User: Fold this.
Amino acid sequence: MLKVLIVDDDKLTLKGLIASMPWADYAMEVVGEASNGIEALRFLEEHTADLVLCDLDKPLMSGLELIRKATVLYPDLAFAVLTIHSDFECIQQALRLGAIDYVAKVQLDRENFSSLLERISNRLRKNVQERSSQAGHWEDCVCHEDTISLLIALSEEDAEGPARGEKEYISTGRGVWFLNQGSAEPESVKRYLEGRFLLLEIQHVLGMKYGEVFRCADRYRRRALFYEYRREDKHISHSVKELEKREESVSPEQFTALKQHWLSMEWLHDETAFQSALQELSQSRLTKEQLLHIVLAVEHAWNRSYSEPLELEIVAPSDFLCWQEIEDWLEDIRQKSALLSGKYRFSREVTESIFRARRMIEEEYAQHLYSDEIARRVNMSRSYFSQCFHEICGCSFVDYLRRVRVEKAKEYLSHTSLSLQQIAEQTGYDDEKYFNRVFRKSTGMLPSEYRKQHRI
Assistant:
């Protein structure tokens, strides 16, 4: 039975279509669901799947980025993409990355879906036959020495290592190359170690199959290696028992707490708080995908608060090789944030209090917010808070709150089917009529008119 992971918002429709297919022909089972690429990669770390049905247009990590990363980590995993894009180049890019088929969402009915599953089923059978004909190679070989070495690509985007003709290496096809047993360390290793590779020495493997060793090394590579690697150290040594240890995953509640801690921005101007937050995040041993989720959230929150007054934006790299690079990136943000103290005539403490108040508005806009309460929370008197807020933000507390609420209402109107009353409540207005007046005054049109023009 083919195990299917769905990466799409309309999961119920897809599950229903799969359930309605004749089992004898396709025999597919939905084993997981995800709303974006980051959640999908997190699922694949703990579960197996044969096929991913993936929407290309997803937040946080696009379908194309998911295919690019997952095909490196899970070469046997098949992808079929769902798209609303009319741009054939986007579909072609997905196919070049390894997707085996695609279907337009506007054609997503039982007949078209049946045809898609038939094509996928035939192609997967062909892939299995090809893999079977190549079986009985390196994975089944037994280690005849107690210590072996592996050349490991640090980046999933740049994993071009030794070619098949280099007999000193045994390729796994997954960014890892075994050095042939009995060979001295090849001269070519030095060339690779000057780039984005490292040499991992694994001890106490005598009698183990190469496939077992690889699985231990691959698990280590995808989690612990990220935290241990340092740019100045290209050689790492571990016993196989150490690599067999599984990193415990953090709970959803722990992950949310970590994310909120970083979004509080308390670490920006406090060295002790920064070092403490770094240590806590490092010790959590989040996956790279989870770390990227927090990094992108920090990027968005910082730009929302600081890019306009400082007239600059921060951009997170598309990939981090190691924890050290995340530390450097966060430290660079702190250096940029220090420029804020010279921007206004107020003290750094007062300026940061006002920006903290702005973040409270941006996070709590759905609640009843009042300037005297926010002033109390940032330890300022109401009158001085109002004066500083207006001078730093360029508008009053009330006007800033209204602007945040209207912008959020625009998102709801464009991207959801919530009723106007529900949107009013979600953006801090108990009365729909009052919400309509505020929205019209700010945008020049009623919410219903805005939705007709901007609904995606």
